[in-house]
Design a protein that fits this description.
Number of strands: 26
Number of helices: 3
Order of helices and strands: EEEEEEEEEEEEHHEEEEEEEHEEEEEEE
Radius of gyration: 32 Å
Structural class: mainly beta
Largest sheet: 7 strands, mixed
Distance between the termini: 12 Å
Helix content: under 10%
Strand order of the largest sheet: 4-22-23-24-25-21-6
Shape: elongated
Amino acid sequence: MTVTHSAETPTPTPVGDDSGPGRTRRRGRVVVPLLVVAVLAGGGVAAVARPWEHDSATTKQTAVRHDLVPVEHGSLSTSIQLTGSLAFDAPTPIVASGKGTITALPAVGAIVKTGGRLYEVDGQPVVLMTGDRPMWRDLGPDVPNGPDVEQLKKNLIKLGHAKGLDLSADQKFTTATVTAVKRWQKSQGVKETGTVPLGSIVMLAQESVRVQQLGAKLGSAVGSDSIMTVTRTDLVVTAQPAENQVSRFKPDGKVRVKLSDGTAVEGRIRSLARGPAGDDKSGGSADGPNTKTTVTIVLDSQDKTQQAGPSPVTVNVVGDTADNALIVPVTALLALDGGGYGIRVADGHTTRLVKVRLGLIADAKAQITGDVQPGAQVAIPT
């Protein structure tokens, strides 16, 4: 059904009544802009291409054609959804130190814990230990004090090789350290020298890793190339929101993630990092026009995510929600003389003006209260 309505087109007057109806969550009122309601695409904040029609009988009238749409009854939310990826956390390339030939490699997907063998060079195991800095020298009784010695001693203590030695985790390579190193070497089945040659240990910040991919082959010489890439054993979600959605992602903010099998998992935002977009082939800088923000989300349940495995997911950022609401398109709203807003409701072959109060506004729709029923036909300009 199409009706014709006469209305002027001057600048709308300021809002006089900005009080909104009650909501089921968060704020109770929405402050409405004077000319437009900004509705960001996909983000729950809307944008109207033209000012709302101004209703007055005191100025020159022009014919405006309208369509009719029903008043909806349901829920309105400022939540946003976007696609993300479920993947293992913190991929890290492993570059071997020292010289030699690679004689053994783990299987892709293998889990290696602190004290376990990552790979083998010249028939000797290369062991994972926990530490923030890589090894850069041979360690033994004659080395100067240093933080690498401290890292080694912490691992020897944690792995149980310092029992009864009164070994303290300081930066000195003591006689007790020599004994603890020999115990560790015996557990690995290698010659008990009491010294640790460069290349026999890989220090990583995480206590256990998962082998993601191999970058070397058996028989390859140790060099500057990555032998393998490892990750943490936990799965995390990464997503790249549009620019007008980034403000909805707050560090430590809560989100809900829908896994590929339909399972919903709660999570929180760990970090936001600015960098080149995933499909950017321009080679632009990190601050250029082709950059995007990558959001990393940690999940509350690893059991559910491990069952799903690496896969696409849907990320839902919950905002304000209004349940049992009367909902109309924002283009149906008229700025009234004296302030406030109204809508024109079809009444037979004519329309009547009904003043309404605004509530939540999202996705180019507005929550209203007033003398109007669900299903009533309201006029919107065409």
